[in-house]
Amino acid sequence: MRQLPNIITLCNLFCGALAIICVLYAPEFRAEFNGNDYTVISPEPVYWASALVVLAAVFDFFDGMTARLLRVQSPMGKELDSLADVVTFGVVPGMMLYRLLRSAYFQQPDVFDVSIVNLAPALLVPCFAAYRLAKFNLDTRQSENFIGVPTPAVGLLVASFPLIVLFNPYNLAHLFQNIWVLYVIIAVLCYLMVAEIPMLSLKFKEKSLKANWPRFLLVALTLVSIPFLKFAAVPFIFICYVILSLAFPPKVVAH
Fold this sequence. Notes:
two-stranded antiparallel ribbon; two-stranded antiparallel sheet; Four Helix Bundle (Hemerythrin (Met), subunit A); 9 helices
């Protein structure tokens, strides 16, 4: 039983590694619609990659909970969790953004002039994710809340982008076919991961409504937005999370 939390963490890593394969091997093809040519990523592999990130987030939630319930928390488990997270919520989002940037450049008239330099900014996401996770392991202030946006939130956000492109809720797909929108998203996510900004966690340490109402509000917004916004609910929830954390910053105390 002592190894059960580590096994759950390795399930997170397995999902992340499999998601990378799905993203890299998702074939692209040209499609014509209303007289315009579009580059389309085959939906099935990307769907599975996004689903695997969500499943990995479930494993990431339960490994820590299991360790606490069994009272088998260990430094090794903490390090293993970070190693799994940097793959699932760092490398996988980086690969997804790489594919989105590549598809966006395919819409440009000078597509044959595009070099790896144009696509390399997507790889900043796993770099900043690794830095954030290393910092998290050493920062004693982050036992109850976070300093900077946690990597699972970034991973889930980016995992929603290919699905928004594929299913186009509220005609938002074109945003993720714009190279400058993608560059801005990459820059903002990298900054938020390492910024010295207190961020809410979903740990309900206190029972009072007064102490937890921003968390309850975030949960309520999540439940209400999903039926209406569908996959676009994920960016909406992420923005709400950042705004609530900025408006009502949680206390962070070194332990």
